[in-house]
Each structure stands twice: as C-alpha cells, then as structure tokens.
Amino acid sequence: MNQEERLISILNYLELHKTINIKQICEKFNVSRDTARRDIVNLTNQNLVTRTYGGIAIPSFHKQIEDYQERLQIEPFSKNLLGKAAANMINDSDLVYLDISTMVNFIPQYLESKEVTVVTNSIDCVYELVQSDKATIHILGGIVNKSSRHVSGYSAIEKLSDFNFNKVFIGTAGITEDGIYYGFEEDIYFKRELIKNANHVILLADYTKFNKHHKYKGLPYSSIHTIITDKTLPDNLNKVISKNGIEIKVVNKE
C-alpha cells in the first residue's frame, strides 16, 4: 500500500472511529512510527484532520476536546522539541516523575526504547506510556480532574513521599525574576512536596513563559537544577538564573 492509499484508509477509519493514534496506524498499516508521523503531518497540512495528543482526529470531533487538549496545540513544534530534549536526559533504570504540563506530555513518546519507571498523575502521559513495552508506570491516586486530565488531591500528594526520584520534569505558567509561577493554588503545594523527593529537577518552559506572572508563586530558583527552553532567555532572567547556578539548555530548532 502506497502513502496515498494509506492516507485514504486512515480518513475512512476516522469517519467511523473519530480518532486514531500513532500506535494504531503502525499496527493497522504495518508501518514504522516515523512513517506514521509523516502520514499525520501530511493529513494535518491538508487541513483534513486536527492533531490531538498522540494522534489525530476529525475536526468536528476535536471541537469537543477540553481546554487542556487545546493547549497542547499552542506552539506544538517547540513543545515537541523540548520533550525530545528532556527525554534524552533520561537513562535506563531511572525513576522519573512527569508533570501534567502540556509540554512535559511530549516526553513519553520518546521513551519507548528505555527501561524506565515513570510516576505521573497525568492521564495523557499514562495513555502514551502504555504503548511502550519497557516502561513501568505508577499513576498517583485521587480525584480525576476532567478538564486538565489529571489526578489530584491529598492522596496524590501523600504518595509522593514513597519515591526517591532520579529526575523530575515539571512545567510552569510563568517565569519572572522572582521565581516560578503557576495558575492554581493546588499546583504550588504539589510541586513543593514533589521536589523534596527529587535528586534533579528539570523545568520545561518555552519562550511564551518568559517574564510572565501568574496567580501563584510556586517555586524559588533554588529548587531548579536545569531549565530546557526554545529561545535564549532575556537578560534579566538569564542573570538571576545564572546566579543560582541553574543549567540552561536551549533547544536548537534547526
């Protein structure tokens, strides 16, 4: 089956099932993940489908997806690059935590060849990780937040004390000279407890978060070891971050 025939078949499948992910394309059409991704890009560029986390959907169905899923489409190219760079920091046998950040949720697709143990409260992270035969997955318990697709509550925070993470990957709603900001009060308490159990804390933040305040100041720079971003930091942020000895990784888009 050539690509044109395969694309037609994918569209026919979507008419019946509304969505399809990369793993399903690989299995249904006996192609590699790289080929499946090229098919997705081809259909997306023709405006025949809309990207979702881990796959594609027909446009009419995608309109029903919650705000969190829509945020995955903001700067998707940069988020994908940052996710790949973050995944490259993860080694076999690592115990890692993956945050509910839309940016962090691009990491799991690059972990399929690594024998890692992942703890998360993100439903989308779990969805992507179950497609890997090598990853061991722990999902924190609690109440399901349908709009942001994660599990929250006291039991989720309490369970964090059971782990000693090699690496923790978190996102942010904003970065200023004062520190790291979040949009919800619950986030700051969860993050503060999380970093107590981490050997290395990695913050993923694209340029849209630079010098952006939000409702709650969650973490000081002393909590962060590495920042992965897609553009050179503004001078004011670079100065304070360098002063705190934080490693800065700027992902090359070329």
Automatic annotation (TrEMBL):
**Record carries keyword Transcription:** yes
| Keywords from the UniProt entry | DNA-binding, Transcription, Transcription regulation
Classification via InterPro entries: Carb_Metab_HTH_regulators, DeoR-like_C, DeoR_HTH, NagB/RpiA_transferase-like, Tscrpt_reg_HTH_DeoR_CS, WH-like_DNA-bd_sf, WH_DNA-bd_sf
Q: Which SMART domains match?
A: DeoRC (SM01134), HTH_DEOR (SM00420)
Q: Which Pfam families match?
A: DeoRC, HTH_DeoR
Q: Does the keyword Transcription apply?
A: yes
Q: Which domain of life is it from?
A: Bacteria
Q: Which SUPFAM superfamilies match?
A: NagB/RpiA/CoA transferase-like, Winged helix' DNA-binding domain
Tell me the GO molecular function terms.
DNA binding
- Looking at the record, the residues that make up the HTH deoR-type domain are 3-58
According to the record, the segments passing through the membrane are none
User: Per its record, how is this protein called by name?
Assistant: DeoR/GlpR family DNA-binding transcription regulator
Taxonomy of the source species: Bacteria, Bacillati, Bacillota, Bacilli, Bacillales
